[in-house]
């Protein structure tokens, strides 16, 4: 997931987005980590990002809805949404 974030930032032409992210949203996977988003945030060098994990069974589009709503409301500026199994 860290590699995917770095590749996406490079593709976007702005690796500064990784450090600017206010939050990292992930689905809750079958992996053994309690907070995969925190591991991703740490892996991209962002220690300030909040994390959110969507429960199993929640539509993955829920993460996009929550991110878009928080950005539209002015609560967040940059959100990373990532998952992988």
What does this protein structure show overall?
It is a single chain. The protein is an alpha/beta fold. Helix content is 42%, strand content 15%. The protein has four helices and three strands; from the N terminus they run H-H-E-H-E-H-E. It has helices spanning 2-12, 16-20, 36-43, 61-72; strands at residues 23-27, 50-54, 79-81. A three-stranded parallel β-sheet has the order 2-1-3, sandwiched between helices.
How are the SSEs placed, and which strands pair?
Elements: H1 2-12, H2 16-20, E1 23-27, H3 36-43, E2 50-54, H4 61-72, E3 79-81
Parallel strand pairs: 1-2, 1-3
* Chain-averaged pLDDT: 92
Summarize the main sheet.
3 strands, parallel
Rg, nearest Å: 12 Å
Q: What is the global morphology?
A: globular
Low-confidence stretches: none
- Count every beta strand, where a strand is a DSSP E run of 2 or more residues: 3
Helix/strand structural class: alpha/beta
Key terms for this structure?
globular, 85 residues, 4 helices, alpha/beta, 3-stranded parallel sheet
TL;DR?
It is built from 4 helices and 3 strands, in the order ααβαβαβ. It has 85 residues and is an alpha/beta fold. β1, α3 and β2 form a beta-alpha-beta unit.
